Amino acid sequence: MKILILIFITTLLVVGLFWTKPETHAELQSLSPSIVEVEIIKEIEIQPIVKVTGKLEPARKASLHFQVSGQINERFVEAGQKVNKNIKMLSINADDFVDTVEESKALLEIRRSTIERDIRLLELIKKERALQEDEVKRLEQLGQNSLSSKSNYDQALQALYRQQAEEARLNHSLGLARSELKVEQAKLNIAKRNLARTKLISPFSGTVNAVYAEVGDYVSPGQAAVEIIQLNELDLNLEINGRAASKLKLGQEITITTNNGNKLGRVLALALDPSPETNTHTMRIRLASDGLFSGQLAVANIPGDFYEKANVIPISSILYEGGSAYIFEIIGNNVFKKKIRLVDRYNDLQIIEGIAPGTSIVARDVSNLMDGQLIISN
């Protein structure tokens, strides 16, 4: 009985609450006007700058190695040391190379002596041959009627043939010896060059960046021994797009920005054909190293297209939505979203198309605006 009474009371309370519930009405409230900053679209002359970042590197850098094998016996430089051109930096034991030079000199001298001997013999055989020819002619004039005359003539003619054969042999030997002399001279030249190659010489004035060989090490051709760099000038190597590359030429001055300020560099190299992998053009800008150092980041300010009449707006006034760009045009006390086409950028300015100069637009904070919204100009 008590339970039924409780259920009855609860039911009455629920019905009473439902009956006395206040009615609700959804009311649409209009957005309050937004305070906006106004910008007027300007038409100006402008040349955008393409900023490309790279790392400064030594103007010249060479990894040096010996062209002959051997054991290091002297080390004349250390990393960080400044050197002039043609300074000796490392050397290898040259005893075997000295012996090779001396051997080549001796063989060359033997060949020269052989040639001189053959030249003297050839001169003598030519004289003998000339005398023998005269003897043969004399015997021919005497006649060959007697057996003794015939015998003397035959003997003279045979002696002439022998002398002619010897002359031909000496001529051949002399020609061969002269060719062999050239071979021996070439061997001597190579031996002298190899002897000179036992010393590693600086190819230009610069700074030793690294020494990879110690006294006692055995080095082979192609094995890096010393690295030398030139730091009085630095190079900025960059990858740029085709549009930027088309505006450049060799020798053109480019402003380089670092944390030390701005400096002028000049275009030293520019690839006209882009890389098939990246579709970019490589370029190198050289500048004086005053106050700069290798490895420092630098920005090249590369001039772009020149626009004689360009409509420009602040970057902050652009709304990016669905892959398109929009601005909010101010008409009266309302703003209206308008699609534009982006052409080029210069610092915080954007060159656009699709809206006339002199148009008033919202300058910033456009992401909070809606098409047709009421605004208050600041």
What do these coordinates show?
The chain is an alpha+beta fold and 378 residues long. It folds into four domains: 34-48 and 306-377, conserved putative lor/sdh protein from methanococcus maripaludis s2 fold; 53-59 and 231-303, Efflux pump adaptor protein, beta barrel domain (Elongation Factor Tu (Ef-tu), domain 3, Beta Barrel), CATH 2.40.30; 61-91 and 201-225, OB fold (Dihydrolipoamide Acetyltransferase, E2P); 95-196. Helix content is 32%, strand content 38%. The protein is built from four helices and 22 strands. The protein has helices spanning 2-19, 95-142, 147-196, 242-245; strands spanning 34-36, 38-40, 42-46, 49-65, 70-75, 82-83, 88-92, 199-201, 206-211, 218-219, 224-240, 253-258, 261-270, 281-288, 297-303, 307-314, 319-321, 324-331, 334-346, 349-353, 360-362, 375-377. The strands form five sheets. The protein has a six-stranded antiparallel beta sheet, with no helix packed on it. Strands 4-11-14-13-12-15 form a six-stranded antiparallel beta barrel. A four-stranded antiparallel beta sheet has the order 8-7-5-10, with no helix packed on it. The radius of gyration is 48 Å and the shape is elongated. Residues 25-29 have low confidence and may be disordered.
Provide tags for this entry:
OB fold (Dihydrolipoamide Acetyltransferase, E2P), conserved putative lor/sdh protein from methanococcus maripaludis s2 fold, 4 domains, about 375 residues, alpha+beta, Elongation Factor Tu (Ef-tu), domain 3, 4 helices, 6-stranded antiparallel barrel
